[in-house]
């Protein structure tokens, strides 16, 4: 399918007629809407929409780019919306941050290889050398950036390096695939792209370190995993996706850890997929996911 | 909320601009769209839409009725769609068909009582007296209609009686809550309203009688339940909803039966809810469920 | 099946040979083991067992009672275990505590009526009159005990009345079916029987009041329910069972509440069933559930 | 943990005292039972048991081997059971049969690498060259065996080669990881080891080819995967494990296929794990899984 599609995500103050005006604008300019989904927060009176269409001149990247810009202009000025438009022929670029734990690392790369994502892994950044050889077998550039203690000059240097590489590789999103370092508020800001994290518990239960140990100690009957956007408040960012798995009294911490790996992989992969497909809008520390 | 809403379900040949024309029509006449969801079958080129809006004069049932008719006219003539419009202030009426098994019967009535359905149970028809007393404690009229053998005059009489009562009670949908009789093709046609059935297996596995016995004999590790519209082909109608529950080698047929009851209740209730909320479109023996 | 079965729950310090000695004791006295399941906590070195058998003279309640006592003696003295033995022909008696919310109330009573529990509801105690008529339609005695403010004489009187009625009805377990009052530590102690509560969240997330509001505010993608034994620390008791249901950004608090009701019903019912079948052992604020 | 454990799987005609005699035999010879689980088929009067214990001299493979043999002798002669005993220090060897589809292939190998299985992949046999390079990056021998048409001499030769390699590598179990060839009854017999297959549907629904196409055509609301032992009757063997995933009208066949891959991976991995841990007994085309 060589036709370029445009995908717009809109949000802003709700008022009558937005759906009609958006679809009218597209239709009048010869576009064909493939999907349109919207949501209203009835208490906050906020309107959210995801609309995907084939514009006229759908074989010309330049003209599609111009049409996307025209739409953004229209929606901003005339509808008072915040808008983000993406083109289906532009493949988003991912920076994968990893440490030593390999399961999410392999899972993301194998899915990327299998074509499961509308995106490509541009580079891998790690605070350890452990996964270098594996990274190279996938043919993805691997950069080892040791992380110094908080507040040290070393730490500042490594953050500079992380920012530099993400820019160099023109990264659109950072994925923390069980990356065992907290990103500082400053680093998050400087990266200028969304950062997706996977936490190995059903948040808000068992935030912080060693969630499987916490789950074992409390004697819960389900363990979970949560994919969320990273924010300055650790484990407090907007939740994208969650899932759980049943456990019982026989399951040791190491069994919970093993079972949890399957959850972490599928939950993180789903969050990445939705993000790359421009299906997620964030507001008030929550997400609207159009799926 | 005293404002009347209109809900339209459309389906028909896909072509550009339908979304824009539908939302434009509503907007120009002063309506405010609350929800709009659509789907295209990309192979069959069929367009489906559910749109829910507050028309002007939303406090007048008569004017809303007229507006719904005007919309139906527009969508039929100008868009070539099949349309069905319903008004939020009109409460659909259910005929509940039961036999002796009580769990779905109680479940539907308690949910209706709790306000979970946009609908009310108008009457209960049964081929046994078993549940009469319970039915009366819910304050719902109960009619005992014994069913004779197929082809007998008795059977014809009972079908006449079923049709007569459904008309008398102005029924909009029939729910078979573990009703242990097959409805003939002729009866289905004469009822002139949709009929929702609950089958106690994960269809198409274990169609026909005694599905829990079949599941036990095959040694499956999950049992299921399926809500579907009844058609002349038993257990072959369009599937609305399905769910499963994990079982193991320790579970006898009676344990499967007990576990299955919980599935049957929740799956049937969900199907009824979606139907009453005008969320379901049927085509090619499949369903589009806008939820 | 007229044969009486004995069910023993054992726990105590682990050491080699317990399984052999328990099964040997039963076998030598002519008993036939139907089920035996055990568990070791490998860190705490605690042994847990549930064993179910048909003793000789299985048609005599008196002789079975004596055999159960002999087993308890043996396991206590010779194996150093804590033991609890129950007879299959003795039906446990439940006191159901309710307030105004009806769904768990109806669910427990309908399941009891359908024979889903090895137990019977002996009485219903409520701090409101709301469910009296329904209770009476099930043929179960209903007692209205208004609850005064904490520390008041009224409160003391109502606790006295609750204790008195549970004794009068010879209650073996108390089930809080969305009973909207906290049981004081003193009352829990005086009741002298286990108390099962249903909390409408996935504990430890969203303990305390209004969990669906908390879940909505945090933007979680799954809601849950937790059945646990009530302890002096509210929502901190040993967890028996948990389940979750998927939700999304469209679900309002009232929709979460409706969806949650189904979870609360099935989770509470499962916990009651396991408790009545003598499948649960508590230690260190956790449960071992032999199922 | 250097202590050797013995695991016995028993099955045979049920009669009183088996549990006592098995545990007594182990205890008297100084063994310490870690886990014991049993099951009776109440209709067929068959007894099943899995027992895991540390024998005396648990640091000597030879003495443990002898003790296992002694147990097998005892259980066969004195209890009339079919027995299979395995030693925890003996690592089972897997032959992985693959074609071109990579997801189950990678999944099994990464899990093996991560230590998730009590077993090692000894060799990979494929009817295509596609996965050779990947296989070699895992350091596992890869053999390409083209498969001729049924009844041809070529086919006979390839079956001979498959049997020869499985013997040469001393394989204990064959895993068909989306191997796109049917194994003939004769080949299954000659392999002399169990063969585990993953079928990409919720059996018995959608047996045979293209199950995701079948699922799409029927309009089911859940898709599934089934791991089973391969038998001469295709897709009719004893079911080990099953799971499902929710789908809706928007999901195309290719989306079902992508979603299904996650199911196939986890369901197959679980079946392999249970098999390698000696947790599965087969009878009457069903499985008893002690987990």
TrEMBL record, chains A, B, C, D:
Protein name per UniProt: Formyltetrahydrofolate deformylase
First-tier enzyme category under EC: hydrolase
Lineage of producing organism: Bacteria, Pseudomonadati, Verrucomicrobiota, Opitutia, Puniceicoccales
Domain of life: Bacteria
Keywords in alphabetical order: Hydrolase, One-carbon metabolism, Purine biosynthesis
InterPro entries assigned to the protein according to its UniProt record, in alphabetical order: ACT-like_dom_sf, ACT_dom, Formyl-FH4-Hydrolase_C, Formyl_transf_N, Formyl_transf_N_sf, PurU, PurU_ACT
Function: Catalyzes the hydrolysis of 10-formyltetrahydrofolate (formyl-FH4) to formate and tetrahydrofolate (FH4).
GO terms for MF: formyltetrahydrofolate deformylase activity
Family: Belongs to the PurU family.
Gene3D superfamilies reported in the protein's UniProt record: 3.30.70.260, Formyl transferase, N-terminal domain
Domain ACT: 7-88
EC number: 3.5.1.10
Catalysed reaction equations from the record: (6R)-10-formyltetrahydrofolate + H2O = (6S)-5,6,7,8-tetrahydrofolate + formate + H(+)
Pathway of action: Purine metabolism; IMP biosynthesis via de novo pathway; formate from 10-formyl-5,6,7,8-tetrahydrofolate: step 1/1
One BP term from GO: 'de novo' IMP biosynthetic process
Provenance organism: Puniceicoccus vermicola
């Amino acid at each position: 399918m060589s036709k370029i599609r445009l995908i717009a995500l809109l949000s802003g103050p709700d008022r009558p007629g937005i759906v009609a005006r958006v679809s009218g604008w597209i239709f009048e300019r010869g576009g064909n809407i493939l999907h349109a989904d919207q949501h209203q927060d009835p208490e906050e009176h906020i309107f959210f929409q995801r609309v995907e269409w084939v514009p006229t001149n759908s074989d010309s990247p330049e003209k599609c780019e111009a049409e996307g810009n025209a739409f953004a202009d229209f929606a901003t000025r005339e509808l008072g919306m915040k808008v983000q438009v993406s083109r289906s022929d532009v493949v988003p670029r991912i920076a994968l941050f990893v440490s030593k734990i390999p399961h999410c690392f392999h899972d993301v790369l194998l899915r990327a290889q299998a074509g499961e994502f509308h995106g490509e892994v541009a580079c891998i950044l790690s605070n350890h050398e452990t996964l270098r050889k594996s990274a190279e077998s996938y043919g993805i550039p691997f950069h080892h950036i040791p992380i110094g203690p908080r507040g040290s000059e070393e730490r500042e240097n490594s953050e500079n390096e992380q920012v530099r590489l993400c820019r160099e590789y023109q990264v659109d999103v950072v994925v923390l695939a069980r990356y065992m370092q907290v990103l500082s508020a400053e680093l998050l800001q400087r990266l200028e792209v969304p950062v997706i994290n996977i936490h190995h518990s059903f948040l808000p239960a068992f935030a912080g370190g060693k969630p499987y140990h916490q789950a074992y100690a409390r004697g819960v009957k389900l363990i979970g995993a949560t994919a969320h956007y990273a924010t300055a408040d650790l484990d407090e960012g907007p939740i994208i996706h969650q899932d759980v798995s049943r456990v019982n009294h026989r399951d040791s911490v190491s069994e919970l850890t093993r079972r949890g790996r399957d959850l972490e992989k599928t939950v993180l992969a789903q969050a990445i997929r939705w993000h790359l497909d421009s299906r997620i809008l964030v507001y008030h520390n929550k997400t609207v996911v159009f799926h």
